[in-house]
Amino acid sequence: METRELTVVAGSFVGFQLLFSVASPRLSSAIAPGYGRLPPTKLTEWNSRLVSTVHALIVGLFCLYILWFDDAVNANPVWGDPSLVKLNVAITCGYLLYDLVLLACNWNTMGDSFFVCHHLAALYAYGYVLSRGVLPYFANFRLISELSTPFVNQRWFFEALKYPRSHRMVVLNGVAMAVVFFLVRIAVMPSYWASVFVAWITSCIALDILNTIWMYKIARGCYKVLTGRGGRRVKEGAEASSSSDRNYANNHTD
């Protein structure tokens, strides 16, 4: 992992922590009067979800930019220049580390083993992208799913502020959440897996077929050597050639 990526990871970690502890309480108090009346446990989750929304908007929009305008990555999904993808992934890694620390510090109220496993698996996968620079297109493509997160968090905000489910804003957000969730998490599946198959699986299958053919030829040659069949054919060929030479010599003498 290069110094630039490490700096972005560390900077994102610190930035999201400051957003959680400083910016979110002030911003939320200004735009949501009911924020100050929430119990401490909900205040923590509120701030956490606001940070989650900010992260989702940053990486989700950056992901779309890369998918639309980064020709190097789109032309070569496996080995394309991963510079912009690394930057986006580094931001996500910083967020995941921040969220793991937050979960550990508030385990009694927010602890969830599923999220811990999810974050660790994501850190492993994205860490591989940062250190090796491979499969940038696929790493970036997975981040498009973050665009549904703000609507999921907004649904929780409405519930925390006790908005009735029939409220127009709640209904509109619910419809938007369902539509966006489908578009960025379900509808993209065929396109994603088609790219995986073409760019990755197809080449692997082709290589395995070639390896199988080569192994067959090697095994066949080895079998001939061990059974002596190849040696007898060479010997018979040499004897036939020698006999032909003798016949030619005798005919010439006569």
Automatic annotation (TrEMBL):
It is found in: Membrane. The keyword Cytoplasm does not apply. Keywords: Membrane, Transmembrane, Transmembrane helix. The keyword Transmembrane applies. The chain crosses the membrane at residues 46-67, 87-105, 170-188, 194-216. GO terms for cellular component: endoplasmic reticulum; membrane. SMART domains: TLC. GO terms for biological process: lipid homeostasis. Residues 41-227 form the TLC domain. Its main location: membrane. InterPro entries: TLC-dom, TLCD. Coiled coil: none annotated. It is a multi-pass membrane protein. This is TLC domain containing 4b.
